[in-house]
Amino acid sequence: MMIKNSLAGLPYGGAKEGEWAQNRTGNILDKKYLEKLLRQKMTDSWQKVMTIYKEHKNQIDLRTAAYLIAIRRILDGEKLRGHLK
Q: How many domains does the chain have?
């Protein structure tokens, strides 16, 4: 099974997000805490992709499922900004 690029890249992106948070707050976060947070983000992301994949009865690939999630996030943001109804 192929893993979507954005999910495969999450460890790097998630680590960068943790580093950014530490730089912004001046706090040094525990490595085990960051690893736990990253693992949770990866698990949650994977479960969301699999849910969409199964909702479409396996008629789409995992990449498309990940794109659908991304598009929904964009549309939700645009609705919050008042650009869409």
A: 1
